[in-house]
Amino acid sequence: MDTPDHILVVDDDRPLLDLVARYLADSGLRVSQARDAVQARAAMASARIDLVVLDLMLPGEDGLSLCRWLRSRADVHVPILMLTARAEETDRVVGLEMGADDYLAKPFATRELLARIRAVLRRTRMLPPNLQPVHQARALRFGDWTLDTTARHLLDAQGTLVSLTGGEFRLLRVLLDHPLRVLHRDQLLNLTQGRDTEAFDRSIDLLISRLRQRLRDDPREPRYIKTVRNEGYVLCAEVVAA
Fold first, then answer.
1. Quick one: pLDDT at residue 51?
2. In a domain, 41, yes or no
3. Distance separating alpha carbons of residues 52 and 9, to the nearest angstrom
4. Is the pLDDT score of 202 beyond 80?
5. Is omega for the bond preceding 107 within 30 degrees of 0, making it cis?
């Protein structure tokens, strides 16, 4: 019998926390609860967690800070689904930039939360089924850079390590899997975040900007990631298994 996925739900709203925990448990998941960052850190230290449902607004240390802490740990690559009571685009983008794998605005239906959890878990465990990668290798080299697909970080020509957020890693991996191919924004959003694009959703554009900074790529004369007007983005470098 397969071991159920272990979900950590972090939220200071006790009634909501209990409701979500019961629903997820009734849906066959193992659930732990935390009401603040201190309890969340303790839960992470005491058990293997498969996914964290993390509220943006927490007492004391907020969800963004806790998200940054999780992403700073080289030994932990747990997916994060961030909850926010605010639906503004900036809140969504900031959460994704801090390393969250997806977001869900409050109020939400528990059924949608379960669907998002399962989608994030599937996405982190397999490559997109509709696009097969060019290379199956632990390390991919392009230009002066090497991406370690297991450790999920970049190495420059001097061997200096550059850490990536979850969103940055997924976006770069998709681009490296399909070099010299123009990918539309909606394709990139679907492949990296498992959802269709929304009107005025510019999270991919922001992720591209952050990724260019990591690669020291001049957006005016990019060497690696070029913008194709009214189309999307393309990786303009040869990719080889290292």
1. 95
2. yes
3. 6
4. no
5. yes
Ramachandran sector of residue 168 (left: φ over 0; alpha: ψ -120 to 50; beta: rest): alpha
- Residue 53: name the closest of 33, 73, 72 by CA: 33
Count of domains forming the chain = 2
15: CATH:
3.40.50.2300
Q: Which strands sit side by side in the sheet containing 139-142, from one edge to the other?
A: 161-163, 153-155, 145-148, 139-142, 240-241
70 φψ region: left (φ > 0), alpha (ψ -120 to 50), beta (else): alpha
Proportion of the chain in helix, strand, coil states, percent, rounded to 5: 40, 20, 40
pLDDT digits (tens, 9 = 90+) for 144-178: 999 988 778 899 999 999 888 878 888 998 899 88
- Looking at per-residue pLDDT, the higher value among 38 and 128 belongs to 38
Is residue 44 predicted with pLDDT exceeding 50?
Answer: yes
DSSP code of 152? T
The answer to the question of residue 133 being in a domain is: no
Domain that holds residue 168: 139-241
User: Mutual orientation of helices 63-72 and 37-46 as an angle, nearest 10°?
Assistant: 30
